[in-house]
């Protein structure tokens, strides 16, 4: 994971003799982003559960938009400054439980997801949200007369982060409390500061034409250029991009192992260099505190489990290879894994109530669109129509006897925050949802019909891609 080297480094400050005095001011010097915005504040409880999004940016430019030095690009074996754009080729959604256990889901970069805030696009690969939104905002600013490169880069990147967070939230159903970001150069610099990282491969690999990977089987210590090739390789691997995802997970585990057992923080020179690099290359969301770093630094690798979000199948859309995913299944998987009460955690029962969908607003086709999405997620729909004279026109959910549980599930599915209301006007097992002008359907709902069609219309009888078994964060795991 490109940027997690930095995060793991700072997380483990509290484990070292020198950590206390440095951790007292660890936040100082980092670039702080406000991309979470007023709608997505950093509200994680420092002593409770929290969700952290880790973003690895495949950019060959620095924070100000300047091209990286050619000698560094040569070491990266990653093309020139125009290669890669601003794709987020690494996305990991991390959940920390109140008792300091961690579940981390890698999000495959080519997952094909709906979007509603990027002009000209209804669906994209999730990795593209950052770059497409950045380009859109930068062009708008340029049209308004803004020419300062640093301002264009800064505001464009902030918009890209916001779009990425929204895409992850819509796919997983999980609110992001904090995030951290690093680029290719940051990954290289941090690996160099660590003095190399030990990894383990099940089989020898070779990919000179693309990533530059050329490694024997077994354990080996990689320099920065080799480490980048290790986490970037996807060609000549049996499971392609998903094997690359497992490589990234294994690399994180190896870095944690080195930081916690290799005496890195006992060496003042190495430690100072590591923190200097982290402050230069890592962007943190607002809300991080020194106490958070100390808490995260106490987490053992044995308490960390890496998983990968499932992919239904590979497909080709408009000439691009994409991963077709089932967002409802992903939300269910993530919800179950992130539950902080495993004993009480169960998959929600299939809804049995009938839902009437009423369009009380001015958006044409809203009721039909929402009804189609509900059908795709297992709900039975009844009346689908516009509001009649005398009916409420603000967003609400009313339910009859026996339908309370389904009504709450419906509210979650539609992202309606107002609590469902019991009504003696509704018949048993019946729910009425009214969608007013105040209703803003999430992109997962607004594009559900197209997504459902893509999910069910398979062009191949091939089995679903193998996302692999969970990987422990303890030690140096061997991967393909």
Widest beta sheet: strand line-up: 1-12-7-2-3-4-13-21
Quaternary form: single chain
CATH level-four homologous superfamily name of the largest domain: LCP protein
Approximately how much beta-strand content do the residues carry?
15-25%
Poorly predicted spans = 1-24, 449-461
Shape: globular
How helical, in percent, are the residues?
25-40%
Structural category is alpha/beta
CATH topology of the largest domain: Aminopeptidase
The CATH class of the largest domain, by name, is Alpha Beta
The overall number of domains is 2
Intertermini distance: 16 Å
Count of helix runs: 15
Strands, total number = 22
The CATH architecture of the largest domain is 3-Layer(aba) Sandwich
Whole-number average pLDDT? 81
Radius of gyration: 24 Å
The biggest sheet, with number of strands, parallel, antiparallel or mixed sense and barrel status, is:
8 strands, mixed
């Amino acid at each position: 994971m490109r940027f997690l080297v930095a995060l793991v480094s700072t997380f483990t400050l509290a484990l070292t003799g020198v950590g206390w005095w440095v951790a007292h001011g660890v936040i100082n010097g980092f670039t702080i982003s406000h991309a979470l915005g007023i709608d997505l504040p950093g509200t994680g409880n420092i002593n409770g559960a929290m969700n952290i999004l880790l973003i690895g940016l495949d950019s060959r430019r620095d924070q100000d938009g300047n091209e990286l030095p050619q000698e560094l690009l040569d070491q990266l074996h990653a093309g020139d400054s125009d290669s890669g754009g601003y794709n987020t080729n690494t996305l990991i959604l991390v959940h920390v439980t109140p008792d300091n256990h961690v579940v981390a889901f890698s999000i495959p970069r080519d997952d094909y997801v709906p979007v509603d805030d990027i002009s000209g696009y209804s669906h994209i690969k999730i990795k593209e949200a950052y770059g497409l939104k950045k380009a859109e905002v930068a062009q708008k600013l340029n049209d308004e007369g803004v020419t300062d490169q640093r301002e264009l880069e800064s505001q464009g990147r902030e918009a890209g982060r916001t779009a990425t967070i929204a895409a992850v939230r819509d796919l997983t159903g999980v609110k992001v409390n904090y995030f951290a970001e690093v680029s290719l150069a940051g990954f290289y610099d941090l690996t160099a500061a660590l003095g190399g990282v030990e990894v383990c491969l099940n089989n020898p690999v070779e990919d000179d034409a693309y990533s530059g990977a050329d490694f024997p089987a077994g354990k080996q210590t990689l320099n920065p250029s080799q480490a980048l090739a290790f986490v970037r390789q996807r060609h000549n691997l049996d499971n392609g991009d998903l094997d690359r995802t497992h490589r990234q997970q294994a690399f994180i585990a190896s870095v944690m192992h080195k930081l916690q057992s290799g005496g890195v923080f006992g060496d003042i020179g190495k430690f100072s260099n590591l923190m200097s690099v982290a402050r230069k290359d890592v962007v943190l969301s607002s809300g991080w505190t020194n106490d958070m770093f100390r808490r995260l630094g106490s987490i053992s690798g044995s308490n960390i489990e890496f998983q990968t979000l499932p992919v239904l199948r590979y497909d080709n859309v408009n000439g691009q290879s994409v991963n077709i995913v089932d967002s409802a299944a992903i939300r269910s998987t993530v919800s179950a894994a992130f539950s902080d009460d495993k004993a009480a955690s169960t998959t929600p029962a299939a809804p049995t109530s009938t839902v009437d969908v009423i369009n009380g607003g001015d958006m044409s086709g809203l009721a039909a669109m929402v009804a189609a999405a509900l059908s795709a997620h297992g709900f039975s729909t009844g009346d689908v129509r516009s509001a009649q004279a005398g009916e409420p026109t603000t967003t609400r959910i009313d339910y009859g006897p026996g339908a309370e549980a389904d009504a709450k599930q419906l509210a979650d599915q539609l992202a309606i925050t107002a609590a469902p209301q019991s009504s003696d006007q509704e018949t048993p097992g019946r729910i009425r949802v009214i969608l007013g002008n105040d209703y803003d359907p999430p992109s997962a709902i607004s594009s559900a019909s197209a997504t459902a069609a893509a999910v069910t219309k398979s062009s191949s009888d091939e089995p679903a891609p193998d996302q692999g078994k969970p990987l422990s964060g303890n030690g140096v795991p061997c991967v393909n």
